[in-house]
Amino acid sequence: MARIGVFICHCGENISATVDCPKVSEVAAKFPGVAFSTDYKYMCSDPGQSLVVNAIKEHKLTGIVVSACSPRMHEPTFRRACAEGGLNPYQCEMANIREHCSWVHEKGDKTDQKAIDIVRMMVEKVKRNNALLPIKVPVTKTALVIGGGVAGIQAALDIANAGHKVIMVERDPSIGGHMSQLSETFPTLDCSQCILTPRMVEVAQNPNIKLYTYAEIESVEGFVGNFNVKIRKKAKSVDETLCNGCGMCTTKCPNKKNPNEFELGMGNRPAIYVPFPQAVPNIPVIDKTQCTYYKNGKCKICEKVCQPKAIRFDQEDEIIEVAVGAIALCTGFDIKKTDFFPEYGYGKYKDIIDGLQFERLASASGPTSGEIRRPSDGQVPKKIVFVACAGSRDPAKGIEYCSKICCMYTAKHAILYKHKVHDGQAYIFYMDIRAAGKNYDEFTRRAIEEDQAQYIRGRVSRIYERDGKLIVVGADTLMNAQTVEIEADMVVLATAGVANKGAEELAQKLHVSYDQHKFFSEAHPKLKPVETNTAGIYLAGACQSPKDIPESVAAASGVAGKIACLFANSELTREPLIAMVDRQAPPMYSSCTGCFLCQPVCPYNAIEREEVKDRNGNLVRELAFINPGLCQGCGTCVAVCKSKSIDIEGYTNLQMYAEVDALLNS
Amino acid sequence: MKLGFYPGCSLEGASREYNESVMAIAEKIGIELVSIPDWNCCGATAAHNLNKELSLSLPARNLALAEEAGLTELVVPCAACYSRFTMVQHELMHDEPLHKRVNEIIGKEYKGNLRILNVIQFIDEYVIDKLDENVKFEFNKKVACYYGCLLVRPNKVLKFDRTEDPQTMDIVMKKLGADAIDWAYKTECCGAGFSVSFTEAVARLSGNIVEDAVHRGAEAIIVACPMCHSNLDMRRKEIDKFNGKKSDIPVIYITQAIGVALGIDHKKLGLQRHFVPVNLKDFKPFVKKEIDVEKPQNMEVE
Amino acid sequence: MSEFEPKIVAFVCNWCTYAGADLTGTSRIKYATNVRIVRFPCTGRIDYMLLTKAFASGADGIIVSGCHPNDCHYTSGNFHARRRWMVFKKLCDFMGIDTRRIVFSWVSAAEGVKWADIVNTTVEEVRKLGPYESYHKLSTQDILA
Amino acid sequence: MEIINKLIDKSALATLIERFTKSGKEVFAPVKSKGISEFARVETIQDIDFETIATKQSAKSLVFPKVEKILSYEKTFDDVIVNNVDYTQFPEVIAFGNRPCDAAGFIPLDAIFAGELVDEIFKARLEKLTVISISCKKADDYCFCTSVNGGPGNTTGSDILLTETTADEYFVEIVTEKGKAILDANTDLFKDTAAIDKTPFLAKLEQQFTQEVINEKLNGIFESDIWDKQAMRCVGCGACAFVCPACGCFDIQDETKGKNGVRHRCWDSCGFKIFTLHTSGHNPREKQAQRWRQRIYHKFSYQPEQQKLFGCVGCGRCSRACPSDMNIAEHLKEIAVL
Amino acid sequence: MEDIKKLARELLADNKVQLVLGFENGTANRVRPAFFTTPEAVDKLIYNEFCIQNIALYLKKDICQHAASLAITANPNVVRSILQLAAENQIKEEKIKIIGITHEGKCVGLLDFKAAEEFSKTQPKGLKDEDKALIEKIQAMSLEEKFDYWVEAFSPCIKCYACRASCPMCYCGKCNVESNNPQWIPVAPHKYGNMEWHMMRAMHLAGRCINCGECNRSCPVDIPLNILSYMLSDFVLEEFESEAGLSAVFTPALSSYTMVDKENFIK
């Protein structure tokens, strides 16, 4: 038989000014199952809490209702008091008679009646509360960082420096990401590689970091603190333990005319190659689609010239299984080409390039050694047009969001161009100049004022070639929307930043959600910007949305901080207010019928299939099982389950039903 | 095979040759085009600037009549009529109260089950596959396919071809053996409704079009809109004055071009009706060639 | 005879509407006393059977409220709820259950004013409709009396 | 009591029914609505369906309704106040126009509810019930009363049995004191007659087996596989039990609204899986075949042993109602020849 | 019919299946479900226009659960039921051989799930004109009339659960009405208990019902239960473009959502 204690708080006068607290206490004392009822000026004060603790002991209470403020305010306080009195902390319920009653109504019988009803409802609920124990989950203190761009590098180094093991997986043969392709960085114009490469080397040398390049995620199972990850290490055809990075193979490879990915097709590389000179690790990879030996079965020159005998033509992909406790997603972004904008002629005319290609042209290590020369004939362009928002902020044809980084890098391009081609003129078509950020606006002003970039506010309608010139037709909305035609030598399109190739597939492997543009979704746009909806998986950098370098680095450090917090304890404690599927002794096993229609409604993929087997190992039933490590307690599955086989602690069917019944049938 | 047909005013007046050529090729490939009984003006160019309900009701009545006549697909060669029809259908299907209101006005119930096709859609769906077996002559000319503003816009409503770089006519012309050039003005404005009221604007806009086509060596401009045609053809004197040089590049409806290739008598196609004389000769017998054209996907994002 | 005071039950999610109702309190915005709030973790948890249960238990009106689309604390609970409500409403409409008495709304944690508004308008609308006699009679005729 | 023989013509019968209703008695008779014949309250003879061989449901609900309040209660702070149903206030009910098999069904029900332990509510209802049955002129493929000691003109369970002898007249057999009371109160409506041989006016129905043979056979076949075979297509619904005039299983349900509540008795069926399900999860009748076997054993073995009567009256309603053609007569015949 | 029998015989003779689920002649000129385990027994197998009971129901019963493999004579309703059961993880493709029969009674041979999906799409759906008329009639009623209509329509219900027992989609081991802690649905067959029961059942079948009409056919008191499901199926198809019984890989409407679901009814 339940023995419930009811504690009515006056909250100074916050409640008692409008609600007759002694009367409520008096009425509550007569509710079936109530063994003790009282009111007090400040229930949350020390004497108030002692009152609760003592009453529990004295009256042998089995549950308490604290009728005071919102549970969002003091539920933890009174759960603690409840535990102090010797009860399970979850035998406590809050009846919200302040925010939901005394503060929103005038003094009177109706208000008193409402307070009484709220208390009755919670009394009926708490009678049906279960004693719950916090859920403990062990934590494997190793982090997996997916993606070796600047965000991944930062996250890995921070976590490693906090003393935890890190496994980094990079899809390309070298870490470095897009940042290693950039010439200079805004707004300081310091050399991108100069600041990045030392950090890349640090990653390689940090004893806490295990680096897998040319590798991809095969599968991810498990849950926070306990992920099992399979990594596919693609065959490089080179034994990494033997290779000393001398470069003989790449120099001697006769098959040198292959489009260089790192140079975005503006240069060539051999079939066995290191993507760029500062690559980490400095170990070459054979491109099997291009290599003469793989194509024709003849050549093997690299093998002959390799002194440490590191070439392995028969090497196969390797699957590595690792156990990790947390995952940092840092897979970065890609740029959208503009072939969906046929009127901009990208791909049709050689001298229309994208922003990343311009970075390579401007880079001292690029195909032109840093001279701005146009791809078609190597001439130095005297008139150059930059088109911002070439795809961004264009719901009709491109993508609706702002790619964020283009305003700044376009200004940077204009400045770099002017520094390299002194008699050249840069034109920039733009919608708005978005230069919010430390020293950002100053930077764009500098492009306009010092480097004479001519900003034209308007969109480009068409670019076509005529008599060797690129005619850029646009409108100048600040000049009465007049049509502007510029005969340019070269055009640079600031194409949209989009989700990386394979982002969707990866998200599905990790069970993290992603938006309609395939960018990974954060758990909360404001308060959980680096968490995903899947506990233990975090995200940093441009895989979330287009971000510049400082933002990516900040997010990465945020992720590292989150992971360090997670790893601070060897066990993870979680609120036990989660859903469970009915379990019974055989032959029933469960009332679950295994239809798994609950599976698609779970936002956390917490619902798994459990096979019930008999002693001989034969499958008897398939039942839903809710992984307590993953369930966040929304209860959507509870409402979806037709046989009422799922229930959720804290909001059980019995409790909710009793609440409704108690509210109305007074 | 029977399809509905809405001629509209242009095809009965200034652009008779368009009508004639559509009918001629339809007949040749065995399609019967049935005019909507008791059709009325679509209200193009003027109505939607004056009265919203009127601008919706005029086309809606035609559409309802077509439905009543049991038609399921309707060919509308005039690009302006076509634009109004599709826009009205789109608006009514996405706004229930408005749909009800318009039905009340026209005193008929338009259900929205009609598919509306412009000439290039019609060609793309019903004609293009029949070309190989019926074509007699190769259209061995360098041509500039000119789409104008209405034919493939707005994409959200039409969901057909690429708005800024449409290809359907180019593909048809290539199939007929023509060299369809890449040029800059295929979707630029010709001046359209200003043909009469503001000729200077037409001269400038159409002038640029004719100039670029000539500059790139085109021997004919191919169109599919009566207004484009009249601006580029009828206003040639003004155009030449604007460009400061004389041009003799003829402007031909795509249906006429197909008709020529099908071997239909040029008179039957109305080629003699143009202001700029059409002196296309020396068509070689047609030999089927595999041409390298990839049909453009509708790449626009909705 | 005193004016009819409708009984209104509100099924709300913990993260948005419950917090929104807290804000109404914190802002001291007054509203009708007729409403009783039942807290759920998420609108996705709200079983449609509880709605008929509420009517059967004597409610004259029901408010079901949660986070705006895309704001769900659990990402998608409100989307599932929205669909469930659509189907349930359709069924109710077909079976003659008075859906004018069920108000579905999105009230965020910042919409204290909106919450007061929803409650007040619901109370007034239900007051106009009168007690939900037909369902009360159905549910009690064989049990009470 | 010795049977009294009388005649009554149809207009007198109409008057009789009128007198019943005028005197405050509730008359229930087969009424056809939307093509289905069921027992329903009638005011005049015109309301009554005389043609249908058997109503879909039996007349048992007159004494054993599908749902019935047996008590109500009120919870207080520390007690529960129970209010019993006042069964003295039940109205007088006339069952009219039911078939002899329906009337026969009241006998096994009486044995269940008012045997060793007396169910006062049931008893009160039965006592207030007078059964005026009409013999069967027709039978259909489902009828098998003659195989279970019944017949189209059987008087068992009836207070009065009417047999249509001419287009305008019924031969009346007054069987019980209750029947005689009606006669006595309405002597003007009845005419005297000698006993009449009813056979020419009754449906012909061949006997297919005897229930005694079934009873005997059941002694040795509890573990037979025949139950599996017969129950294979049973879908496990409760239609057979619910339409059966002799099935008396019920379920007790408390329904509470706040402090107040009622205890209901509602029909239940041994065909349901949860009928015997234990809280532990164990179910002594786990398989549908076991439940089917229970149904047959209860009617043809347990009831004869405990109550000295059989629990089947051969009305065939269960077979008619079965969605998958579980025909009890066919199955019993199968058992009889084992 | 002979081709169906031939197929059934061969499957049993070649040991490809242990059991064939079909129809035989019953009593009183009825047809009824039957289970054939030997090629000889198949002589009794029939298929005609009266074989409309949805025998997919038996796939969840012991006899079929215990058979290692089985075949079933499947008209379009049965095929749709099988696909939906598969979508709900209740039956595995490797266990079942579907002998497809068109709505006109023509045997189309064995169907694997892929073929069954194609088959299912080509077969007409079950809605009869009188059902449609009844739905329209009810929709035209006022709120009070609708309520009274249904209270009255459900009042003869005796809670024999024949609707549930004969529905292939009602396979829950423990039905909602059997949950008694709390007692969601009143068990008693009074008007309120009947209303809540049928409402709950309609909701549970929304988006899952394949509209075979079996609930209506099996109801001993002839309640037009099927039109509740028909009406909701129509709604679900129209609103969510979702239809049950067309694919073995399918998430029913109420287990999914789209961002653009209507919310004009939400304040």
Annotation keywords:
heteropentamer, D: alpha+beta, eight-stranded mixed β-sheet, four-stranded antiparallel β-sheet, 12 strands, E: 267 residues, 2 domains, five-stranded mixed β-sheet, globular
Walk me through what this model shows:
The complex is a heteropentamer of chains A (666), B (302), C (145), D (338) and E (267). Chain A is globular. The model of chain A has no long low-confidence stretch (mean pLDDT 93). In chain A, α5 (109-127) packs antiparallel against α17 (653-664) and α11 (355-362) runs parallel beside α12. Chain A has 5 domains: 4-127, Rossmann fold; 142-234 and 318-332 and 500-566, FAD/NAD(P)-binding domain, CATH 3.50.50; 248-305, no CATH class; 335-498, FAD/NAD(P)-binding domain; 579-649, Alpha-Beta Plaits, CATH 3.30.70. With 666 residues, chain A is of the alpha/beta class. In chain A, the strands form 12 sheets. Chain A has a 5-stranded parallel β-sheet. In chain A, strands 20-27-21-22-23 form a 5-stranded parallel β-sheet. Chain A has 17 helices and 34 strands. Chain B has 302 residues and is α/β, with parallel strands linked by helices. Chain B folds into 2 domains: 2-117, Glutathione S-transferase Yfyf (Class Pi), Chain A, domain 2 (Up-down Bundle), CATH 1.20.1050.140; 136-285, Rossmann fold (3-Layer(aba) Sandwich), CATH 3.40.50. Chain B has helices at 8-12, 16-28, 47-50, 52-68, 79-93, 96-106, 119-134, 155-158, 168-175, 194-197, 199-215, 226-234, 236-243, 254-262; strands at residues 2-5, 32-35, 73-75, 115-117, 137-138, 142-145, 179-180, 220-223, 251-253, 284-285. In chain B, the strands form 3 sheets. Chain B has a 4-stranded parallel β-sheet, with helices on both faces. Chain B is globular, with a radius of gyration of 19 Å. Chain D is α+β, with helices and mostly antiparallel strands and 338 residues long. Chain D contains 10 helices and 12 strands. Chain D has an 8-stranded mixed β-sheet. In chain D, strands 5-4-12-11 form a 4-stranded antiparallel β-sheet, with no helix packed on it. In chain D, β2 and β3 (36-42) form a beta hairpin. In chain D, α5 crosses α10. The longest helix of chain D is centred in the C-terminal third of the chain and has 20 residues, at 288-307. Chain D is globular, with a radius of gyration of 21 Å. The model of chain D has no long low-confidence stretch (mean pLDDT 93). Chain E is α/β, with parallel strands linked by helices. Chain E has 10 helices and 5 strands. The radius of gyration of chain E is 19 Å and the shape is globular. Chains in contact: A-B, A-C, A-D, A-E, C-D, C-E, D-E.
